[in-house]
Amino acid sequence: MSARTGQRRASRRAGESRGRVSPRTCGSRAARGAGPVGRAPADDDATARRPRPPGRPARAGAAGRLAGESVTVPTACLGAVWSAGPDPDTAVLSWDLGGQREDCTLRVDPGGRLTELRMQRWGDPDGTGFARRPFGAAFTGEVVAGGVRLPERLRAGWDRGTARQAEGEFFRARIEGVILR
Length: 181
Description:
This protein is of the alpha+beta class. The protein has helices at 3-13, 23-26, 28-31, 46-49, 59-69, 165-168, and strands at residues 16-21, 81-84, 90-97, 100-108, 114-123, 131-140, 143-145, 148-150, 153-158, 169-178.
């Protein structure tokens, strides 16, 4: 293993990600507006080894992840159904993914910048059993590429909007560059 590979793995274990967003890294389906394509969990990813409960398709968790990640590829969101959210500064982004409906509540600031995503996502973050659990992300900053506005930084995790929010955070990322094709 090279020193560079070791650094990437250590960085991943620390919950950090640095990468470029492009149709190649998001998947060409995302570039066409069909939705982002996620990566398979790494061998050292603890969630990759956790068995799924019988009777619940493995795609249930992936559908929630896809719906939530779609906000990082705004052109993909054109295929979603939009509705007013519970508060004046919110909207609900709804996807029908393989017959399963996934709703994400998005919050924006007065300038229209995305600041937060909340949803109920299928998972077992605390080892007590699979169920729909609070999940979300906080977004800060902004990157503009080809007229498309994207959040510059994101922090995501389980228990978003609860007292356990800080404990549930497991992912941080910064968009360093965007290539739109």
